[in-house]
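Page header: ASSEMBLY MODEL / two components / 1282 residues total.
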Amino acid sequence: MSDVVEKTLTALPSLLSLDSQPGSAKLSTNSKLGSLIRGITELTSKHEEEKLIQRELSSIKEQVSSPNTTMRQMKELMVRTIYCEMLGYEATFSYIHAIKLAQQGNVLEKRVGYLAVSLFLNESHELLLLLVNTVLKDLQSTNLIEVCMALTVVSQMFPKDMIPAILPLVEEKLNHSKEIIRRKAVLALYKFYLIAPNQVQHIHNRFRKALCDKDPGVMSASLHIYLQLIQENPESYKDLTASFVTILKQVVAGKLPMDFNYHSVPAPWLQIQLLRILSLLGKSDQSTSEVMYEILDESLRRAEMNHNITYAILYECVKCIYTIHPKSELLEKAAKVIGNFVLSQRINLKYLGLKALTYVVHQDPRLALQHQMTIIECLDHPDVIIKRETLELLFRITNDQNVTVIVEKMLDFMSINKEDHTTADLVGKVAELAEKYAPDNEWFVETMNTVFSVGGDTLQPDIPNSFLKLLSEGFDDEEENKKLRLFAVNSYISLLQGEPSKLPQRFLQAICWVLGEYSHLREDVEPDLVLRLLVKLLNIKSTSSETKSWILMAMTKLCSGGAPLSVPLEVSETYSSSMDTMLRQRAQELQYLSQNPELQARVLPRGVSQEPMEVDSSLSFLDGFVSEALAAGAAPYKPPHQRQEELSRSKALSLEPYGLSLPISMSSCSIADRQSPTLLSVSSGLSGDRTDHSHKGGSTTLKLDGVRRVWGKEGYLAQRESAEETAPVEAPSPLQPLVQQGDGDASYSQTPTPIPECEQEKQQLASSLFVGLASQSSVCLMGKSEQTSQRFRRKLKDPAASFPSSTQNPLVSPPSSVGHLLLDSSISSDLISSPEQTHLSSVDLTVANGEVELPDRDMKGIKSTLLREDSALAAGSSPHEELDRPKDSCLTSHLPAELSGLPHSEITPLCTSPSLDLSSCHVQKDDSLVLLVFMKSSSDYDIQQIQVQVTCEELEVSCVCDSPVEELKSHGVVVCQYFLTVKSPSVYFVLSGMMSHQIPDNSLQETQFSHRIPLTSFLRPLRLSTEEYGTMWLAFSHDTKQNLPLMMDAEEPLTATLKVLKDKLQLHVVEIIGNEGIVACCLRQDQPCLLHCRVHAGMLAVWLRSPIPELPDCLLYHCQRALQES
Amino acid sequence: MMQFMLLFSRQGKLRLQKWYVPLSDKEKKKITRELVQTVLARKPKMCSFLEWRDLKIVYKRYASLYFCCATEGQDNELITLEIIHRYVELLDKYFGSVCELDIIFNFEKAYFILDEFLLGGEAQETSKKNVLKAIEQADLLQENIDFQTSLFAAPS
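Prediction written out in full:
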């Protein structure tokens, strides 16, 4: 607020002394709070403050617990307590009184009580349960303010389990005549959706109603829910696209009441929310994206005012344009907006400009090229945040030509950065770039050294792992591998000769491994020297015991090289009595192996080539030992999960501490990856030189020699030298080739003729940073074709993804949907005539008019999907029905004989490629689910080598035959079978697949697809007796309770409801006694779920228990749907 | 969705805190301490946005008071800045050219206004008029009650 008068604490004493002045009247309303605050400001030390507050708190404590304290006094006390808590002093004693105040006070006292509750407690606090009754009472109050307060507190926090208790009341509020109440109710439902989506999933039609509310405030509140819903499942809400576009159109055109304007921009919050929703809907979906092009263009055009809020809208627009299916015209405009942001003098806009660039640079590298000089300037910006974002951008444009410069910039930044989080992030990025683009071995090793030393212990553990893996696996070129390893050895020996105590533990471990493994590559270094270095390391106090284990391992490997035994023996002596078991074991190994060369040679064979060792994973060589032990009375082996289960059941002592304490990778590597010592050819002189060369890092000046060398290697040397030669003659020449290659009207071309030295340096830097990009866009056509090919791939994926939901109703394109709506107008008319809708004022969102058709449309959508899912089960009872369907009939005949008698789902298309059509269905066997993929050739030639891979995180997928289908005759059909079992339950399982095949010219074609299977397909009845049920019930730990609707119109509601569940979900009804029933089902034999149902207050109270944590929730979801639908 | 909002003075004293995500008191204190330090260390002309740990911080200084919001990755930074601004406008309208002292001594009012403006971390009512109307209705009630109690000398 620009006109806020600056009154700081320095003015405090003078203000406080003027008690009689009118201005201070509001300061002294809370006189006791006032004196407390005044008292605190007069204090000079933290210690005094602490004493004062403690005194205050104990006096408050005394008063709140006194029975004579009135609610009015309590309110005042509570305000003071809030203040003390804000200062950081705990006042847990007051929490219960805050709840009491909210319960018993009059409206105003209640208000403070609720405020205190919302500040003191969070939604997992147990005291919150005590608030439920108060909220219930206030929700039913006739006083609007009380209702508002209750809804406000509910939207901030509410115990998850108690949502069903108040849900009906909150729902009811959606019909309230006051818009403020409706709005708050919608936000409360939003909160419920966030913390427990299952609890509100049956009232999705209510959300639709809120979206069509005549009050724009209520409507925009409902968008919060829709944003979440669409984020999770954009496919189901595509039909709303046109409505969101219409709403946005009206908002942009200024049709909303003036109240919604913010600095004369119409409803910016609403606009941004809608833009976010649209970008989710339009993402990789051309037809949906086309609906929104016009309004996006309009939004860009309207947002012209020079104010933060218009920039906020512009930024969101740009994000949306780059997310949805691209349109070149809009992209151009968006690029221009990004340019304006980047070039802006306002630092906030510059930051967002850079951020936008990082998002879009993959799609449009020219954009970064256009702004290269600005980017270079930002690299030296005084604000670290700008610098950091610039590095992020550079990270995205790194290629094998500019990697050295970019990594150097990142390392420079890390050396001045203090924040751990940023360091960890950047270190990971540097490691990634180094592995991907390293120009040569020396640079790679040196860079990784810096990564290890700077990253220290914040380093992600996978970085050293993948580094060591890379060293041991190497590349195809054995000579290159050796050079790399040798260089690493050299570098580490010199590091250990320096001051190893300063190196982080992770780095030391990596060094030890490399030295143990490869130090023999250096012929001129005696193993003894390396051993001594390692001993030195062992004796450093700060070395952790984990690192010590690594050191001992390295020593063990070194001993085989014929080193003198005195050192290792001494060491093993010391550590064989260590308290650390792992260390002791390593010491024993060292001792034993170093004295027994024959065994050593077998355990750690040297000179074995790269091929992985053959490992007998069944450990059959131990069979004799096992049978002997069993005969001697030993307990048979049990797999870990079984042990775990038994442990938890018997609550025996945990054997946890005896688990493995060393990374497995180490031990496995050391045995399997022994390297050959025979390839020694590089002179150490050469490698020494290289060490020197790359040791120069760390100076702050611009260092481009690294780049120069790379260019020489890559053949860029000539180009670069010519640029340097011409530089003095023609000022911007180092850039010129780039300018021409990039965009003609690049905005930095106004460089003045005499270029100061620093400017020249910057341009040099620019040319080295953007080198790869320039070459990419110089071959402009290629760049573009690459882009389109990428899009093409995405497009292919897209129909596959949308197929499962669109098999019955054809892809809904906007015009046809309009027609559809008109046809359905008879159904929708009763919605239109609902009382609220008749009050539509012409100003208030005329959209509502346009939208009334929507609810029923979507409900139909839901129904149709339900039907389809159920068809899997419906088909089960009458499989012959399938034959009537002409579409399926040809494929049904291809069902494998052994599966043909079993219930199977409808055959749905998965994806199509020019020559192949894929469809699938699943067949329910007693113990598993079989996914059948039909491949139907639509081409006139034979297709070869078809391979279909199906994966799913939550499912175990095993294919009947892993080998590709060798040949498919033209117009023939082949069927693949996959057995699916559940690993971890989920409401739906989304399988993603990849099909590849060869077409006649021998090129490989790949197509991706996805397929969705509901949990219900995996459910099987679990036939139990009541006694068995009883024992199982007690054994399971994970449970969920919820109320489900009861079929009240049936004669026996409970029986009827359970029958529906039995029929639809294949549950087994164990027994029904009175108003209680027990039901059981399972996924596999070891994945049961038990349901206990009870009729209570017109609802079916269901209590689910299972050993699998996720199963009850998922099953509940399907029960709810099954009941709703019937 | 907004994760939390903090108001603190140039001296680093916390004036208001609103958390929209459930965190333990210990975490809250730690975040507050570190964030206040980070923000106070920044110079006046610097960017209002910070990437801090895994949060996006948007802050702005008004006179002696810093307003600081933490949001999620996808949220629009500029609109968050405007949320802060609108809140300041609301406070200004309610208190009549607001200053830090108004917020110190009437912090519960500041909370009421905030709750009417933001709910559960989302903007619920962006119209200045409507927010203040809701607050004033409750305040009016207060006056009525005060009036009644003094009139009938009801036991307090």
